[in-house]
Automatic annotation (TrEMBL):
One of its GO terms (molecular function) is hydrolase activity. Counteracts the endogenous Pycsar antiviral defense system. Phosphodiesterase that enables metal-dependent hydrolysis of host cyclic nucleotide Pycsar defense signals such as cCMP and cUMP. The lineage of its organism: Bacteria, Bacillati, Bacillota, Bacilli, Bacillales. This is Glyoxylase-like metal-dependent hydrolase (Beta-lactamase superfamily II). It comes from the Bacteria. CDD domains: yflN-like_MBL-fold. It catalyses: 3',5'-cyclic CMP + H2O = CMP + H(+); 3',5'-cyclic UMP + H2O = UMP + H(+). Residues 20-203 form the Metallo-beta-lactamase domain. Coiled coil: none annotated. Keywords: Hydrolase. It comes from Paenibacillus rhizosphaerae.
């Protein structure tokens, strides 16, 4: 797992499995926010990076873009060691607590990788709130309760699986893992609204000025 500073406050931690998987550490005046939980194998290098790269500063909260297994993997061990809330959109919470199962192809086959979290470890995001300098935006489609997080000061959107990024190009989320592609593409219009300088995707990287590519992306889908 490698770490790269994307903006003043935002770091990416990424690994390869077989797609690149990215999580983010966001620095704030009072500590750190972890956005997404990646894969189980990411916990030990993350723990080491917290001690070294991030100087032992505390993780104050964990924010989830959504609850697919490749976005929560390290959280089982992390929350054993660190007492911190996992926050997700309220629609996504039943999928994390085991009351509901994802139904898309990959989700169906991977639900076995999603061990339910105890309900007292999960909290709903306040969608009008601000967390570690970021504002959550409900961006449904890939999953029902998918959220993207925007850091207005750094002008970076942590997009989760709202998009993918291939060699700096904005691409749709992976179809077979996406509950409703049309809705997800509509949610993607958030890049026109927010005009982020950088859009960081869980798979496989960062896109500059995503709004310039968004219209083409939608057209390609409808052709
Ligand atoms: Zn996903």
């Amino acid at each position: 797992m490698k770490f790269k500073q994307l903006t003043r406050h935002v770091w990416a931690g990424y690994t390869y499995w077989p797609l690149p998987v990215m999580v983010w550490i966001v620095e704030d005046h009072d500590g750190l926010t972890l956005v997404d939980g990646g894969l189980p194998s990411m916990w030990y290098p993350m723990r080491e990076a917290l001690r070294t790269t991030f100087g032992g500063r505390p993780i104050n909260r964990i924010l989830l873009t959504h609850g697919h297994s490749d976005h929560i993997g390290m959280l089982y061990e992390l929350t054993e060691e660190i007492s911190v809330a996992i926050m997700a959109h309220e629609i996504e919470i039943p999928f994390l607590s085991g009351e509901k199962s994802y139904t898309t192809l990959r989700e169906g086959s991977k639900n076995k990788d999603i061990k339910p979290f105890p309900k007292n470890k999960i909290e709903p995001l306040e969608m009008k709130g601000s967390y570690g300098g970021m504002i959550p935006y409900h961006t449904p489609g890939h999953s029902l309760g998918h959220v993207a997080f925007y850091h207005p000061e750094d002008r970076i959107l942590l997009a989760g699986d709202l998009f993918t990024a291939i060699f700096g190009k904005l691409r749709r989320p992976i179809e077979k893992f996406t509950a409703n592609m049309e809705e997800s593409l509509q949610s993607g219009a958030i890049v026109n609204r927010l005009q982020p300088k950088l859009t960081a995707c869980s798979h496989c990287g960062v896109v500059k000025e995503a709004s310039l590519q968004y219209c083409k992306l939608v057209k390609d889908q409808t052709n």
